[in-house]
Structure formats: structure tokens, C-alpha cells
Sequence to fold (246 residues):
Amino acid sequence: MGEAKLYVIPASHPSRSAMLMLERKGIPYKRVDLLPVISKGYLRARGFPGVTVPALKLNGDRIQGSTRISRELDRIQPDPPLFPADPEKRAKVEEAEAWGDEFQQKPRRFSWWALKRDRAPLASYSEGARLGIPVGLAAKTGGPIVALAARFNAATDENVSADLASLRADLDRIDAWIADGVIGGPEPNAADYQLAPSLRLLMTFDDLRPFIEARPCGELAKRIDPDFPGRMPPVFPAEWMTSLRP
Ligand SMILES: N[C@@H](CCC(=O)N[C@@H](CS)C(=O)NCC(=O)O)C(=O)O
Fold:
């Protein structure tokens, strides 16, 4: 196997899904940290068909997207498996993984919405990253990048408040998958790896962590992805979070 190269954005949750799955498979890889927005042109210039991370170069192939990466890793190295062999069980894991692929947009929107208001927490999300410029400088000069990313991801008040209003139902759904044994088993599967980093990104928000960490899904997220970087001080208007309270 040639050297694997994984293109990521620091604290990008699907990027972490890909990192965790490569680690699970024991496949060594070189991580390339990219700045958001700039990443798009960079990936295109390197021959990737799309503009998002995670993007993986493996044995000369270019595989983009966390759900494609999970399947490709199982194809090239079946053990340990990321999907159950039993077709019925596999369908459930695939369903949870696909749902998680969409769910990613909530923590993504929250993050850009919050960083647009205050860029100071940005440095904490880039901890340990090699961006080619000092992390502090990237955070200081990152205004245009944050503004563009917020725009690309439609991180508007309207969307963010609606996403918060339905977040409790999302957490209930994830907890139900844990109760049904679809995720949270002793051998993590592709849906565990898909969902845990999204939950961890949500848990970097001081506003949200108390509503997640004691739940089964919060515990699962900490177990699967113990070292997620970043910390976002309270930022959401209290009235947007009423439905999170029991
Ligand atoms: N659902 C895709 C989404 C990938 C995605 O949107 N990644 C974001 C980072 S979390 C990205 O590359 N955004 C480009 C940018 O920020 O400029 C996956 O799981 O791979």
C-alpha cells in the first residue's frame, strides 16, 4: 500500500471521522491541514473532483467524503470491519451514517455563525494544526475566511435558531440508535465514527455541552473521539435554546 494522504481542515468533524477510521484500520497516513475556503482551490488543484474535506489520496485513488471513505477503507482492508456483515444490521448502520452525514451541517453552521460574531475562539479549534502560518496569525487574519464560510453554509440567524430548536430531537434519535445497538457497541462502526465528531463539535460550545455530555450520545462521543479541539464560550441568545431544556 502506498502512503495515504488525508487532507483535512482543523476541527472539521467529518475530517476527524476519516482520521479515526484510518486509525481504526491501522493504516498510517500523512495529514495535510488546510485553511477553510482556501481548501477548495487547493483540492481542485490536486485533482479531487469536489471541494470538501476529508479528501483522501490512497494508492493513487482520490476518495472524497466521509461516507465514501468508510466504504473504501472496508474495501481495501476488510479488517476490522466498519460495517456489519449481516445485511439487516448493515442497513441500519448505513441509515445512521447517512443521517449523520446530513446532521453535520448543524454543528458546522453553529460554528461559523459563532465565529462570525467573535473570532477569538478560532485559535483553540486549530490547536495542533500545521497551517503553514502560526495559528494565532491565522485566527487574527481569518475574518474574510470566516465571513465566506458563514455565507457558504447559510449560517443565518433563522437557520441557526431553527437548528437549535430541533437539536433535542436529534439527540433523542442518536440515543435511540444507541439503545437499539445500532451504534455504541464494543466494536465501533462507520456510524459511530460519523456521529461522534459532530457531537464533539457541538460539545465544544459551552451553551450546548451541559445538554449533551450526560446523555448516552455524549458519553459515546467522548469515548470514540476523546481529543476534539476547541472551546466556544456562551454565544446563543437564551430564547433560541428554550427547547433544549427539559
Ligand atoms: N458530508 C461531507 C461534507 C464535507 C464538508 O462539507 N466539509 C467541510 C468542512 S467540515 C468543508 O470542506 N468545507 C469547505 C470550506 O470550509 O471551505 C463529508 O462528510 O465528507
